[in-house]
Amino acid sequence: MEFIQQNWNWAWAALALVSGSLLIVSSLRGGSRGISPAQATTLINREDATVIDVREAAEFASGHLLNARHIPLGDLEKRLGELEKLKDKPVILNCQSGGRSSSACGILRKAGFTNVHNLEGGVAAWEQAGMPISRKKK
Q1: Does 105 qualify as catalytic in the annotation?
Q2: Over the stretch 12-34, which tens digit does the pLDDT of each residue have?
Q3: What pTM was computed for the model?
Q4: Per its UniProt record, what InterPro entries does this chain match (predicted)?
Q5: What is the count of structural domains for the chain?
Q6: Would the CA dihedral through 83, 88, 91, 93 be positive or negative?
Q7: Which domain holds residue 115?
């Protein structure tokens, strides 16, 4: 017990160091604000969020979120002009599993978009949550 009392401050200092390091790493990576399918639905319904699907054409055609805009990740930077009016509005980016859309979040943030969210788990998580999928071409 005496050992714990004498070394308690070290434990707190180590915890603070680890926690701070994780925050720094997350912010350096552009730490996209990940949201769950339920949170995405709320953002779409309450704040009229725009959904942008950054998957390839065949993936998009196989099923996508209702009313999603399709802009493949490789085309995103050259098509930023199409999204200019959304700079201060909520935007949800999605892909199949959340990796590409996380990169897309970073691209939009660098371009000055202020309210960007990554759908955690992508379309796979969306479907697993029982949310509707559209197969209509846009």
Answers
A1: no
A2: 555 445 454 444 444 444 445 79
A3: 0.77
A4: GlpE_sulfurtransferase, Rhodanese-like_dom, Rhodanese-like_dom_sf
A5: 2
A6: positive
A7: 32-128
The residue among 78, 98, 82 whose CA lies nearest residue 34 is 98
Note whether 19 and 73 are same-domain residues. no
Of the listed 43, 51, 76, 95, which one is catalytic?
95
Asked if residue 48 is part of any domain, the answer here is: yes
Q: Are residues 90 and 117 in the same domain?
A: yes
pLDDT-based confidence at 10, cuts 50/70/90? low
| Residue 4 structure tokens | 């714990």
**What does the alpha-carbon distance between residue 99 and residue 91 come to, in Å, rounded to a whole number?**
16
Other CB atoms within 10 Å distance of the CB of residue 63: 15
The owner of tokens 């990796």 is: 99
Residue 138 lies in a domain: no
My answer on whether 58 and 82 are in the same domain is yes
Distance of CA 106 to the CA centre of its chain: 9
